[in-house]
Hints:
15 strands; four-stranded antiparallel β-sheet; 4 helices; Immunoglobulin-like; single chain; 3 domains
Amino acid sequence: MAIINSMGVGKARGSMGNVTYRTVRGRTIGSQKRGGVDPATRADGETLTQFIFGLMARFVALHSADIKASFDGTKYGSARNAFIKLNYAAFVRALRALYQTGLKNTDISDSELEAAITAYATEHPDEIYRAKKYGEVIYLNGAWSSEDNPEEGGSARVTVSNLLIGGSALASNGSMKLDTEKTTALTANVSSENVLSLAAGSVEIQIGDNAVLSCSSEAIADGVLTADIPQVNSAVAGSGQTVVITMRFQADDKESTKVLTYTGVNVTTAGNPL
């Protein structure tokens, strides 16, 4: 592709030879026509590029208000353009497996699209841009949430690491053991770079479609949050579970929320069933 500044070409549209011209925001842009077949093309004719752009356009539509609030527009484009430009490569990696199933992008449901992006962001928490505005860069590290929109002047960004449940690290495709007779300890290292005080608010855990577990939590001491997961019913046990942990913190005069999503978790219980 080339941007053309020429009296001879002017505001051109259409094709000449193997070059196609179009005018965007007062600039004439020339791009070479594609020849042959895209190597990433399936038998049904849908290319990987078409597949990804179709799903990205839908993802942007699902989160249009958040994206507008979270990204500075490009020099010659919108916040939507900025989101696509920043995240196209990561979306290719996140959605390639869906392309290889042979389904068209129109066959993928919104929930399947969201699940694929959430799973990839959980496994690769520093690849998909969630926000880039007000001089702040935020990466998507789990499910999309409007509460991650940046605030002018800087928002309270809380970092959670070294999450342990019952003394064991929790990860996607890992395991989690809860107790049916007593509480299970949850600990995590928490920090924030741009607040003076950070206090624990609440911790909630949802396993699959089961009811939300509200944990009793203590104030943060020496950068460590401690909470007690209540005793559970043995019915929560199962393989391939999705575990969503929502942590709310009081950071200076505002609340900051952190949502951690883990997929494919093998949940087991100990003790006698309730």
